[in-house]
Amino acid sequence: MEVVEAKRRRSAAGVAPRRRAVRDLRRSLTTNRALVTLVAMTTVLGLLVAWRPERFPLNTLTIPMVVSTLFLRPRQLAGYITFALAVLALATTQQETFTPRLWASVATYTFIGLFVLGISLRRVQLGVGGAEGEAMLVDLRDRLQAQGEAPPLPDGWELDATVRAAGGTPFSGDFFCYSSCTEAGRLDAVLVDVSGKGVSAGTRSLQLSGALSGLLGAVPPAQILPAVNDFLIRQSWQEGFATAVHLSLDLRTGQYDVYVAGHPPPLALTADGRARRLGAGGPLLGLIGGAAYPADGGELRPGEALVLYTDGLVEVAGLDIDEGIDRLADVAAHQLERRVARRGPDVAVEPALRGVADALIAATGTPGDDRAVLVLRRA
């Protein structure tokens, strides 16, 4: 009995490693399903190209290579491209005649392979690629847009704001951040212009907007821009500066304060269309430690409006920036007068500010720069 029991134990001990090996193999195949599929597809196509070159040209091998950029992780992609180029070399040696067309196909396939290999080596630094990388960019865009959505305002207040990125891309160095304290009768809105454009500026915008979102409502308004300035200095960005304007408004009384950091001055528009520039102004964010940002303010009366904007709306070729600001003020006053007159006494028909931000962007500035504008009006 002891001999039988010992044999049974040895048999069970031998089966366990085999089961683990099979389980690990299945798990590996499941995890690397896309890689296994592409390797099998490339192998089959390579055999077909070597067997029937007149029916299956070398360019057929580019199909799985292009598909691999969408589904493989960076390190997998580098290994697969190396394998695909090896299949190309073997398939080429099986060709019966070497014509100029064949050499052109070999050169094209090799160029594509080396190009994709270069992409994979760059993606290794990030750690994601293909569909994962695109999903990260989409998430970045959605987060910026969500953080820039204005909170609902009480009756008697209207707000319209928009951001237009240079070149029509979804990523911009201009962005808004708002407080969520409107139920307490206060609105804090910050418009930021981060140095740079496009995706590189978008990543810095997301980082800075996250810091701003945590500060708004958590510290007094006068401390917001100094805290952001200290944050940027600690980040040590290569392009480590930004401009900003912070509006802090009491929705019950209309009293407001404006803090400016190297940003074009906000505009206060009276009911009769006159404009006043606001903001004593402080230095750019991220350059000078311990910088001060003094407040400028007033009271927003019924029929009056505030306009916050970035330099993309007032920096126009052939115009001085002061002329650009005056032009923006004239266009804003005209748009508000026309829209209020069109709406008439029935406030419920249509908000006067609906579409006014888009109209200002369409009428001023240059498409070659990121542009953002906010118009706030007391009805």
UniProtKB/TrEMBL annotation:
Domain PPM-type phosphatase per the UniProt entry, residue ranges: 154-378
Keywords: Hydrolase, Membrane, Transmembrane, Transmembrane helix
Molecular function via GO: protein serine/threonine phosphatase activity
Keyword Transmembrane: yes
Its EC number(s): 3.1.3.16
SMART domains: PP2C_SIG
Gene3D superfamilies named in the record: PPM-type phosphatase domain
UniProt KW Hydrolase keyword: yes
Membrane-spanning intervals of the chain: 33-51, 71-90, 102-121
EC class (word): hydrolase
Protein name: PP2C family protein-serine/threonine phosphatase
Organism: Nocardioides imazamoxiresistens
UniProt lineage: Bacteria, Bacillati, Actinomycetota, Actinomycetes, Propionibacteriales
